[in-house]
Amino acid sequence: MTRTDKAKRPEPWCPVAATVDVIGGKWKPTILFYVKDKPCRFNELRRLMPEITQRMLTLQLRALEAEGIVVRTVHQTIPPHVEYHLSEHGMTLAPILDAMVAWGEVYGRRIAPARA
Fold first, then answer.
1. Mean residue pLDDT across the chain
2. d(CA 59, CA 68)
3. What region, left, alpha or beta, does residue 114 occupy, with left being phi > 0 and alpha being psi -120 to 50 degrees?
4. Domain contains 15
5. In this structure, what CATH number is given to the domain that contains residue 96?
6. Does the residue 5 lie in any domain?
7. I need a labelling partner for 66 at 20 to 30 A (CA). Which of 3, 9, 57, 116 fits?
């Protein structure tokens, strides 16, 4: 088999990789955590995640919206405001997010004394 044959061969499908493609990265899981239980406005998300830049938050929210995970709602008020919340499809990720929270709580407690 030549090198070009290997390059043309499709990768085996992996459900974990498919999930990570949608919700992976540094910021997306945190965004999903905050919008899981209640709608959040853009600036509220900025306050909850002070390390993220405005541009990066915008890009991440757009990507999640394009995947159908997050819904962007524009309220016609003066001034107008925008809220983000999980879509019905995005709510299927709730058990994954809950498991991540539970794991993080246990893991965080284990490493907190070492970081002190």
1. 89
2. 14
3. alpha
4. no
5. 1.10.10.10
6. no
7. 9
Amino acid code (one letter) for 65: E
pLDDT digits (tens, 9 = 90+) for 48-65: 999 999 999 999 999 999
Sorted by sequence, the CB contacts under 8 Å of residue 42 that are 6+ apart come out as 57, 61, 82, 84
Give the global pTM. 0.82
* Structural domain span for residue 100: 21-115
Domain presence at residue 6: no
Residue 9 in any domain: the answer is: no
Burial 72-97 (b: 16+ CB within 10 A, else e): eeeeeeeeeeebbbbbeebeebeeeb
Q: What's the one-letter identity of residue 27? A: W
What letter represents residue 46's amino acid? R
pLDDT at 114: 65
- At 8, the pLDDT band (50, 70, 90 cuts) reads low
